[in-house]
Amino acid sequence: MPFPQQRMRRLRRTPALRRLVAETRLGVDDLVAPLFVREGIDRPVPIPSMPGHHQHTVPSLLTEAKRLSGLGIPALVLFGVPATKDPEGRGASDPDGIVQVALAELSASLGDELVLIADLCLDEYTDHGHCGLLGPDGAVDNDATLARYREVAVAQARAGAAVVAPSGMMDGQVAAIRDALDGAGFASTAVLAYAAKYASALYGPFRDAVDVTIVGGGDRRSYQQDPANRREALAEVALDVAEGADLVMVKPALTNLDVIAAVRRRFDLPVCAYQVSGEFAMVKAAAERGWLDGVAVATEQLVSIKRAGAEAILTYFAGELADALSG
Ligand code: PBG
Questions:
Q1: How confident is the model at residue 6 (pLDDT cuts 50, 70, 90)?
Q2: Ligand 1: does its nearest atom lie under 6 Å from the Cβ of 225?
Q3: Domain 25-250 in this protein, CATH class
């Protein structure tokens, strides 16, 4: 065999050759930055399990959003932490609620320069920590929750969200929200459906970030998906597409690369993936100990998420990587 060792290595020889033949390119355009804004604080509060991230005040959120936009990041997704919580999660739809106030300020100062995505859920706002309203039996009441999601969607759109992103995994949530938005004159507000969202232990640091504890040590397995299932994810996505989703999401990302790939093959809408708080925290914790190179590992993971088929990736590494990618 003549020169067998050259067969595959010929095109790996130099950085320029590798760049020329790269099948997957990660750029700032792929990144969506999740941000937290908290009511009733006068300076940003660091989130211990998410190094580098804060619960922002409205002014510090504006500064951070401008910085990210300046780095070329096209979109952010916003989560709110209200000063008080109640059984209905009223802060989620209050026109003076923290996310609505923040969205109004963001859209006034950034306009369409940055895509403002509002996470649409109740768990940050309910005192019991569930993503919906509880019925008399203590279980999450799907249809009563949809009525609340409709109010939240309209409040977020009115405040300036370009995209609302329902993350509560109630059945029929996309249809309900689409109908509410259209009925209130927000036909151009898009819906990013957390279509295949698994019940995952990787959301732990996020729950610190939004001060959520589920009542009685409960979990979300009665509405989020069982990680054992892939076909069920395709059924979830099909429903959300039929109900009018404009973009669909798979979450968490790394543990579900097969799901991302399957969704990409079957549907022709933009597919997003969420590299969640636990995925971020694991890399950060190991990097802080000097056990691995955090930016290099994060880049490798995001490239694989993109290679699996995601068009856009929600990631807590967005700011850090935008710096590295443009520098
Ligand atoms: C629900 C919501 C969650 C996340 C995004 N939206 C938490 C949950 O379902 O428990 C998790 C995101 C992350 O871990 O980074 N509003």
A1: confident
A2: no
A3: alpha beta
